[in-house]
Design brief:
The chain is α/β, with parallel strands linked by helices. It has two domains: about 210 residues, Glycogen Phosphorylase B (Rossmann fold); about 170 residues, Rossmann fold, CATH 3.40.50.2000. It has 17 helices and 14 strands. α2 crosses α16, α5 runs antiparallel to α6 and α12 crosses α15. The longest helix has 18 residues. The N terminus and C terminus are likely disordered.
Length: about 375
C-alpha cells in the first residue's frame, strides 16, 4: 500500500510549548486537526515534565520528559538525541515538520539520511528574537544569517507564515522558502460574542477597555502596554487594561502597576478558548506590542471577534492586520496615539473592518498551504471539516 493510499505519517517536532503557550500551541493543534481531516496521520512530539502518549482530536501526541530551559520562564526542550532518533525510527515518518531552528536543527540531517522530506517552520525571526534580548542589531543580523543558512541547508523547505518572516531567508539567498499563513477559527471567534455585561465587569466604570493577550516575557514587550495606558490616562483618556497571559515578567509588571496606580487587571493564563474569545470580543482595542512577532495569532483572533489591533510596526503584524488596526512605533506614546486614532473611528465601522480582515485567514487555507509545502495529497474535504 502506498503512502498516497494510506495517508502520510506527518511527524511534527516542537519545542518551547507549555500549558500556558498561546499561538504556537494553537497552530500545532489546528494544523494537526487539518492534517487528520485531510486523511493523513499527524504525530506531534513535544517536551514535558512526564512522558505521555495519547490520541487526541489533532492526532497522536507524544510527550517526552525534557529539561526546562534556564531563564525561559518554564519552556522545555526535547533533549537526548539518541532517544529522539530511536523514536523517529519507530514512527517511520513520511514527512517531518520541525518547529525549532536551534536545538532540533540536527533532525534535518537525520531526515536527509532517512530520505524523509522535512520542513522547518519559522515561527519567529532569529534576528528579531536576538534583538529583543538585547543583542546589538548588527551582531544579531550576522548571527541570524549564520543560523538561517544552516537551517536552509538542513531542511528540504523552510516555511514562513508572512512575507516579513520570509525576508531574513531571502536575504541569505535561500531558494527553498515557501509561504504558508496561519489561520483563525472564524466560528469560535466572532463579533456576536461581544457582551456589554462582560465589558462592564472588566472596564470598572472606564469608557475604554484595552486587552493584552500575550505571554509575559521579554520578547513580547508587555511593559509597552503599560506605557501606553499611562500615556492615555495622562491625556485624560479613561482607559483600563486587561492582561490575559502569564510569564516570567508578571511579578515585575504587577509591582509597577501598584507603584504607578495604573488601572490594570491581571487574569493570568486563560486556558479556556471560549472565555478568551469572549474577552477579545468584549475589548475595544487589542494591543500587540511584540516587535519580533512573525504572525500574531491572538491579534488575528481579536480581529475575528471584531476588535481592532494596535501592533508593533517592527513586527509582521501590520502585514496581517492590514487596515483593520494601526501600526505603531515601539514607544508608549506611539501606541497611545494609535489607540486614539482607532477610537476616533465609529465603533461599528472599526469592528466591521476588523471582522472582514480576519475572514481572509481561515484555517482551511492554512492547512492546504502547509500540505502543499509538504507536497502531500489533500485526501479529505478540508474546507468542510474545518469551517
Amino acid at each position: 500500500m502506498t503512502g498516497r493510499e494510506r495517508g502520510m505519517t506527518i511527524v511534527r517536532l516542537a519545542n518551547f510549548v507549555t500549558p500556558s503557550s498561546g499561538g504556537l500551541r494553537t497552530a500545532l493543534d489546528e494544523l494537526g486537526r487539518g492534517y487528520l481531516a485531510a486523511g493523513h496521520k499527524p504525530v506531534l512530539v513535544v517536551p514535558g515534565d512526564t512522558a505521555g502518549d495519547v490520541y487526541t482530536e489533532q492526532g497522536r501526541v507524544i510527550t517526552l520528559p525534557g529539561p526546562v530551559l534556564p531563564g525561559s520562564g518554564g519552556y522545555r526542550v526535547l533533549a537526548g538525541r539518541h532517544r529522539l532518533r530511536r523514536l523517529l525510527g519507530t514512527l517511520r515518518p513520511d514527512r517531518l515538520e520541525v518547529s525549532d531552528r536551534t536545538t532540533l536543527r540536527w533532525t534535518g540531517e537525520w531526515a536527509r539520511r532517512a530520505r524523509v522530506p522535512a520542513v522547518m517552520v519559522s515561527h519567529e525571526t532569529a534576528d528579531g528574537v536576538l534583538r529583543t534580548w538585547g543583542v546589538p542589531a548588527a551582531a544579531a543580523g550576522r548571527a541570524a544569517d549564520r543560523l538561517n543558512t544552516l537551517s536552509a541547508h538542513a531542511y528540504t523547505r523552510i516555511v514562513c507564515t508572512t512575507e516579513w518572516a520570509e525576508r531574513e531567508f531571502l536575504r541569505i539567498g535561500a531558494r527553498n522558502v515557501v509561504r504558508a499563513p496561519l489561520g483563525v477559527d472564524l466560528r469560535r471567534c466572532r463579533p456576536g460574542r461581544r457582551s456589554t455585561v462582560l465589558r462592564a465587569r472588566h472596564a470598572h466604570g472606564r469608557s475604554v477597555l484595552l486587552l493584552l493577550c500575550s505571554r509575559l516575557s521579554v520578547e513580547k514587550r508587555p511593559g509597552r502596554a503599560l506605557d501606553a495606558l499611562a500615556v492615555l490616562n495622562g491625556l485624560g483618556v479613561p482607559a483600563t487594561l486587561l492582561v490575559a497571559g502569564d510569564g516570567p515578567l508578571r511579578a515585575g509588571l504587577e509591582s509597577r502597576v501598584r507603584a504607578e496606580r495604573l488601572p490594570v487587571e491581571f487574569l493570568g493564563h486563560v486556558r479556556d478558548r471560549e472565555r478568551m474569545a469572549d474577552l477579545q470580543a468584549a475589548a475595544d482595542i487589542c494591543l500587540a506590542p511584540g516587535p519580533a512577532e512573525t504572525f500574531g495569532l491572538s491579534a488575528l483572533e481579536a480581529l475575528a471577534c471584531g476588535t481592532p489591533v494596535v501592533a508593533s510596526a517592527s513586527s509582521a503584524l501590520p502585514e496581517v492586520i492590514g487596515g483593520a488596526g494601526a501600526a505603531a512605533a515601539d514607544t508608549g506614546d506611539a501606541f497611545a496615539a494609535a489607540v486614539r486614532q482607532l477610537l476616533a473611528c465609529p465603533e461599528n465601522e472599526r469592528r466591521t473592518t476588523a471582522r472582514q480582515r480576519a475572514e481572509l485567514f481561515g484555517w482551511d487555507c492554512s492547512v492546504a498551504a502547509f500540505l502543499a509545502a509538504h507536497q502531500v495529497p489533500q485526501r479529505g474535504g478540508i474546507r468542510g471539516a474545518l469551517t
